[in-house]
Amino acid sequence: MTAEATPSRISRESSAAVELTVNGRGLRITGDPMRRLSDVLRDDLGLTGTKVGCEAGDCGACTIRMDGRQVESCLVPLAQTAGSTVTTIEGLAHGDAWGRDGAPRVTFDLQAAFLRHGAAQCGICTPGMLMAADALLRENPRADAQAIRDGIGGVLCRCTGYVKIVEAIAAARDERLAGAVSGSPAATLRVPAGAAVGARLPKVDGLARVLGTARYGADHRPDDILAVRAVRSPHARARFEIGDLAAFRTSHPGIVDVLTAGDVPGQNRYGIYPTGKDQPALADGHVRHRGEAVLALVGDEQTIAAIDDRDVPIEWHPEEPLRTIEQALAPGAPQLHEASPGNILIEGRLATGDIELALADGAVTAEVDVQTTHVEHAYIEPEAGVARRVGDRIELTVSTQTPYMDRDEVALILGLPPTSVRIIPTACGGGFGGKLDLGVHPLIAIAAWRTGRPCRAVWTRPESMAASPKRHPARIHATASADAEGRLKGFRFHGDFDTGAYASWGPTVANRVPVHAMGPYGWDAVLATTRAVYTDNPPAGAFRGFGVPQASIAHEALMDDLAAQLGQDPLELRLANAIRAGDRTPSGQRLAASAGLGACLEALRPHWQALRAGARAHNERTDTADGRGARQGVGIGAMWYGIGNTALANPSTIEMGVTRDGRVVLLCGAVDIGQGASTVLVQISSDALGVAAGDVDLVSGDTDRTADAGKSSASRQTFVSGNAARLAGEELRRQILALAEVEDGTIDVQPERAGRPARIEVTDAAGRVATIELAELADVPVTDAETSCVLAGRGTFDPDTTPLDRDGQGVPYQSYAFGAQIALVEVDPGLGTVKVRKIVAAHDVGRAINPTQVEGQIHGGIAQGLGMALMEAYVPGRTENLHDYLIPTAGDMPEIECILVEDPEPSGPYGAKGVGEPALIPTAPAILGGIRDAVGVRITELPATPDRVRAAILDLGR
User: Fold this and answer.
1) Can you tell me the mean pLDDT for 163-187?
2) Do the domain assignments include residue 808?
3) CA 653, 657, 659, 665: dihedral to nearest 10 degrees?
4) Is residue 339 over pLDDT 50?
5) Would you call 660 helix, strand, or coil by DSSP?
6) pLDDT of residue 15
7) Are residues 487 and 561 in the same domain?
8) pLDDT level of residue 274 (50, 70, 90 thresholds)
9) 732 and 694 within one domain
10) What's residue 693's pLDDT?
11) How far apart are CA 92 and CA 65, in angstroms?
12) pLDDT of 418-474, one tens digit each?
């Protein structure tokens, strides 16, 4: 039996009828025969579990099964599907696994394995991964680890590092081979009250991700929608005039509105800092980078998609751009922003001790110059969202890391009070800092405000890569000295960071780097200075580490150089000089506790010794053979990282309540971008209250429903929002115990049941039970007007920091993460190619609230650090797609061993601190150290591509 699919709203004039079967249902679809199957599935059939990340066959997010094979649906025209059988994630989720109530149930197979093993982080690639894995195991039921990596090689993941994905597929393979089927994975959420912290619970939002039902920015498509598309500058620097828009609109009847800078209702400038709002929503006669939005087209999707930017009446007057830091700082260089003489946005500084004396006193001295380039976030979900005008308010449903900052910036642009703006975060398909800046927000908000209709924008992959912020390119010079025994003396550092056309997070980078520039070691004297420099490159914003990964390459290279000159073991030199509890940092802060670098290095020592011995043996065999084989080397990198904002207020507020019908709710404004914040905060709050984690319902993110928990960045959510969640749970517990008139006891919140109203039963140590009837309590106010709470606790936490003086002295962070990694690499001297064989990572996380998620963050950080070290280089206008811009695939990943060091942070929730950014920082230094150990060359211009490695080897031989 066939059913008619709704014709596409954007089908073209030519049409054909195609019959096929989708998820077991016969369909007859009429439309343009050349339409992408991915669009048909999503727009016509509502199967939004199939994701679109590139529309070029590069990312694999749209992978489905077609006639038993995995295919990328964005490359399949509708005509090619005639007579085919198609299965999407929705069909895989259902299959023959149906519960008695008719709802989909997941047996312990692929989806349950992904959930249990933490294989889905942000979840945007998960449907594609599952479909690829399903096709693989159908074809090769006994696939080994290498076959699994090959089978998912066409699907990119930016979050997980692929390790948990391979583990999950292998687990499902073994279950299939054994014929075992387990029940719903929801059962794994059931741990006893008080036992959530430290448990390997699956993500509380994970089921929707493995079923394909989680809704991301592009999955929201209300009726009566208008499309919004920016027309962007093809020039890095230019003046322009806009011509006759009336005639242009007449020639394109589907256009409803054309937005220019003059149409911005409020302030046409936004930015992260109150004093750094220099970026226009729409350029006003002058563009400062390629891809900057000049005007916006608003209208029906078919019309908007068909317009060529060259047909828009814009007259361009290109000017010579400032593409490098050197050009921007050169005498007589054009001034890019009037408020920043010399194109210097801001300078940072940290100084302690007599640097000249300390350097002169050293028995050995080392110097290094480091150069890094733009790095693209490459989240698999491009920017997307919908805006609606609701009376005198505006609502944006968008992919974001920071709903409250978005709210305030949109209010500024529209000229509204912040209370008139609502931000509703969607599931976020990766962020890594890139979705801290506004993306689609300004233009869809202006369009919806003016037209009164819902307005939607979805950036293409090239658009996202042209317009979104990048990691700051850096030019660094550093010098360090040590005495004859290996005691570190002086460290001098200067770094220039290319902040691009607009400020974005440049001030954060310039101020965070000096605090961290010397690494996690004790020095007699330090002088660290930085500058954030304007250029005509895309804005450089936040990217997992705020400049610290660039700085770590310099300080770890110097540690290796000093060790070589002293004839000391590189690990032992680091261990002897590691900052420990009781020491003062270069900013003058005394670390009272939780400084676990020493423990991390000690945990790595046996691995270090074994890998170095193995590499020596390998190289001896190579030398004995013909001397031309691949050589192995082992490198090490260590790091520290301050948790949260640098010397600034950093508060988070979270509420926890009990509803009249007996539900426990956590009202949490912290956005989960894949790092697992939602799960961690449920674990913390449930233990604080004394109920099972599975009994807590989560309300997340919405600025109308939750208090401000701050941005999801700076590795802050576990520490800062975790403390707020703990305080909220403890306050709610105190209220319940007071009502029960007991000092302590077990709390059992019982929802409404047949014939019995909702209640709380509290059992004291003697076994006496006190009952609180919830119907008898009055409502109490919480941020969420939709949730009727009769009891509520509210927790607010702001780390104890102080402002820094002009020399960077003060308390920039309350807590620091520490870690170290060692990398075994293999270098082909003839080709310059580098293969990372193994990484052992030891990280002091304070307390692992959820060890599975902590490991997943470490794996993902290593993958991004590997990409930064060996392959990732963004060039505006040249690498604006995912087949020219390379990120690691499953086949690029080494074996990874994680060692979790738990040195509890007394001020952290149950001793915890962050790991999201720390996981990335030591990876590139360790890999670069491994290259040097293998072939004797130090690569200081990243990435270490084969041509650079080969050239360095040739230079060494001359």
Assistant:
1) 81
2) no
3) 70
4) yes
5) coil
6) 84
7) no
8) confident
9) yes
10) 95
11) 9
12) 999 999 999 999 999 999 999 999 999 999 999 999 999 999 999 999 999 999 999
What is the mean pLDDT of the segment spanning 135-162? Answer: 97
Can you tell me the mean pLDDT for 681-705? 96
139 and 181, same domain (yes or no)? yes
Percent of the chain with pLDDT strictly greater than 70:
96
**Which 3 state secondary structure label does DSSP give 148?**
helix
Question: What pLDDT does residue 566 have?
Answer: 98
Measured CA to CA, the distance from residue 646 to residue 640 in angstroms comes to 14
Q: Which helix (H) or strand (E) holds 111?
A: helix 110-117
Residues 687 and 781 placed together within one structural domain of the fold: yes
Token pair of 203 as six digits: 């993500």
Q: Where are the alpha helices (DSSP H) in 349-474?
A: 355-361, 403-414, 441-451, 461-467
- In a domain? residue 219: no
| DSSP secondary structure letters along 714-749 | TT-IIIIIHHHHHHHHHHHHHHHHHHHT-SS-EEEE
In the structure encoding, which two tokens stand for residue 448, read together? 């919806």
> Quick check: 180 pLDDT over 80?
no
As given in the structure block, the two tokens for residue 762 are: 């509290």
Return the H-helix or E-strand segment holding 476: strand 474-482
Q: What range defines the domain where residue 934 resides?
A: 551-639+815-957
Q: Please check whether residues 707 and 604 belong to one and the same domain.
A: no
Query: Contact 491/505 with Cβ under 8 angstroms?
Result: no
Tell me the mean pLDDT in the region 491-502: 98
Task: Say what the alpha-carbon torsion angle 697, 698, 699, 700 is, to the nearest 10 degrees.
Answer: -170
Instruction: Please say if the pLDDT value at position 133 is more than 60.
Output: yes
Q: Is residue 209 part of a domain?
A: no
Q: How confident is the model at residue 96 (pLDDT cuts 50, 70, 90)?
A: very low
Half-sphere exposure of 798 (CA within 13 A, CB side): 8
Work out the burial of residue 213: count CB atoms within 10 Å of its CB; fewer than 13 is exposed, 13-18 middle, 19 or more buried.
Answer: middle
Is residue 334 assigned to a domain? no
Structure tokens at 823: 């990398």
Q: Quick one: tokens of 730?
A: 């403890």
Domain end call among 544, 576, 597: 544
Tell me: do 483 and 576 sit in the same domain.
Answer: no
Q: Is the pLDDT of residue 417 over 60?
A: yes
Q: Are residues 855 and 942 in the same domain?
A: yes
**Residue 240 confidence (pLDDT):** 98
* 483-507 as b/e: b if 16+ CB within 10 A: eeebbbbbbbbbbbbbbbbbbbbbb
Q: What phi-psi label fits residue 945: left (phi over 0), alpha (psi between -120 and 50 degrees) or beta?
A: beta
CATH code: domain of residue 45:
3.10.20.30
Find the DSSP H helices in 455-499.
Answer: 461-467
Q: Which residue has the tokens 């054309």?
A: 258
- Find the CATH number of the domain harbouring 461: 3.30.365.10
Q: Is the dihedral of CA 304, 309, 313, 316 positive or negative?
A: positive
Mean of the pLDDT values across residues 826-843?
Answer: 97
The domain tally of the chain equals 5
Distance from the Cα of residue 367 to its chain's centroid = 33
DSSP 8-state secondary structure symbol assigned to residue 132:
H
Asked whether 832 and 840 are in contact (CB, 8 A), the reply is no
Which uninterrupted H or E stretch holds 32? none
Distance CA(824)–CA(835), nearest Å, equals 9
Residues 6+ apart with CB under 8 A from 555: 478, 480, 491, 493, 517, 518, 519, 521
Distance of alpha carbon 604 from alpha carbon 581, whole angstroms: 20
517, 544, 571 — which closes off a domain?
544
In a shared domain, residues 185 and 40: yes
